[in-house]
Write a structure and sequence with these properties.
- This protein has one domain: ABC transporter transmembrane region fold.
- The chain contains 14 helices and no strands.
- The protein is elongated and about 90 Å long.
Length: 330
């Protein structure tokens, strides 16, 4: 059993950053999908724009159609909201198709390239490497490329949504928008302190899974099973596997808990922004410096920015970058 335990895993440094050369190599795999990426970005930006327009229509209904008792204006505004919703849903379906096409295509190219590379390595590499670790890289780690596409989409979506939301909010009330933006530094600080830890926990979980997969692969074959039987090391093998499985469990718990604390803190901070919108906007409505429809529109922008379904409708990653945090603060 000593031979099978000879190889060791490298320690994962959660603070390690991706090198520029690695990014360039990754872009080489994505280059054949340039046209798809452009269309993908177009659907994201288009969906963000369509999603930012309904509050303006709601403002028109409250400030114009209802006071004038105009069924014609009300019908037009209602149909406009319906068209915007249908358009946004259609872009969401197209976005999902393009996301899957690009993500699955990257996984395919990475797997084939990795398989080809491993086959060309020397025999000494295979004698010093663990089969389970290689299988984990080939079957599981390459899936990160699909998550990268989703993360990239979330960044673009957040930036576009932020731009459109800021534009319309400023048109409605510069004062309310300014008050909302005062929370941005606090949320970015939280993102820097906790976001990096989430990434570290995710890397440790991947390492723990690779260790467990390696042991499974080595023990669940004829030679590995024979060695266990010959040396009568069932108990020690069970203890070692228990250690790896516990590491996977613990890393998963830490990742889930840190993620929940992260988003709970974000929700609490963003909640202060919502209160500020209603308080400042409500005061302006009482003072007749802001219309009721404008207040409803401002509140709607807040709900759209914070609603979980809105954050995930384009298949975005749950581990959001600072761009999403800035948007959430609005």
């Amino acid at each position: 059993m000593k031979y099978m335990r000879a190889a060791r895993f490298e320690n994962v440094d959660p603070r390690r950053k991706i090198e520029r050369a690695t990014l360039l190599r990754a872009w080489g795999f994505a280059r054949p999908y340039r046209a798809h990426l452009v269309a993908y970005l177009g659907t994201i930006i288009g969906a963000a724009l369509l999603g930012a327009l309904p509050p303006i229509v709601f403002k028109s209904i409250i400030d114009s159609a209802i006071p004038k008792r105009s069924f014609r204006d009300l019908t037009i505004d209602a149909l406009l909201v319906l068209l915007l919703t249908v358009g946004q849903s259609g872009l969401g379906v197209l976005n999902r198709y393009l996301s899957s096409l690009i993500g699955e295509g990257l996984i395919y190219r990475l797997r084939v390239a990795l398989f080809d590379h491993i086959q060309q390595l020397s025999i000494s590499f295979f004698s010093q490497s663990q089969t389970g670790s290689l299988l984990s890289r080939l079957n599981n780690d390459v899936l990160g490329s699909q998550q990268t596409v989703s993360t990239f989409a979330s960044v673009v979506s957040d930036v576009a949504t932020l731009a459109f939301t800021l534009f319309f909010m400023i048109q409605l009330s510069f004062e309310v928008t300014l008050v909302s933006l005062t929370l941005v530094p606090a949320i970015i600080l939280l993102d820097r302190r906790v976001g990096g830890r989430l990434s570290g926990f995710a890397r440790r979980q991947m390492q723990a899974n690779a260790q467990m997969s390696t042991m499974e692969e080595e023990r669940f074959n004829v030679s590995g099973a024979l060695l266990v039987k010959l040396f009568g090391s069932h108990r020690s093998e069970l203890k070692e596997f228990d250690t790896y499985a516990a590491s996977v469990r613990d890393s998963g718990v830490r990742l889930a808990l840190a993620g929940r604390v992260y988003f709970t803190a974000l929700s609490l901070i963003a909640g202060f922004g919502t209160v500020a919108v209603y308080f400042i906007g409500g005061r302006d409505v009482i003072l007749h410096t802001l219309s009721l429809g404008a207040l409803v529109a401002l509140a709607q922008y807040r709900l759209e920015a914070l609603h979980p379904a809105h954050r995930s409708r384009l298949g975005e990653s749950q581990l959001t970058p600072s761009a999403r945090i800035v948007r959430t603060s609005l």
